[in-house]
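Incident log, structure service

09:12 report received: a user says their structure output differs between two submissions of the same chain.
09:20 pulled the input from the user's history:
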Amino acid sequence: MKRHKRKKTSSTTAKATRTIRKKLSQAKVAHDVATGSAETIAHRTALIGRAMADPAGLSNPEFATMSREKIFVGGQAAMAMMQRMGGAHRIWTDFWFQQMQRTWTVLPQLAGSQTPARVIQVATASAGTLMSDWMVFWMKATSVSEAMADAGAKPIHRAVVSNAKRLGRAA
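09:34 re-ran on a clean worker, output below:
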């Protein structure tokens, strides 16, 4: 029995470790995107300032790259997020089918109730189950939403970090 408890504790510890690593990874991506974006904006603002002083600077290929790159990376991020969307649809569909099944289970109990107290008892139990189901639904939906956001952040992170490095070397 102690062996089972140790195993459960180690799996709980492993899960907590994975969660912490995931959160740290998300924080690192957010930090990299924030700082990389600020660096990229600063470099590109300097390029624009120089181009305003000397119109020949407008021929810099960076000006053409900026828009095309944003559209391309935005498309990649949207596609990555859409690929994760199936999980959201599945959670939603499962929830509503579960609720239909629960309704068909509760209706005969309500119809067969002999007293108002029994109706209240069945309705209260049904409402409690519904609240519990909603909490589980939102936990699953939050997990899918987080996975979608992580998937969409990857191409953006990659582009922002590479831009900041490239523009930093050029400056």
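09:41 both user submissions now match this output. Likely a transient worker issue. Closing.
09:42 reviewer note: The two ends are 65 Å apart (CA to CA). Residues 2-170 form one domain.
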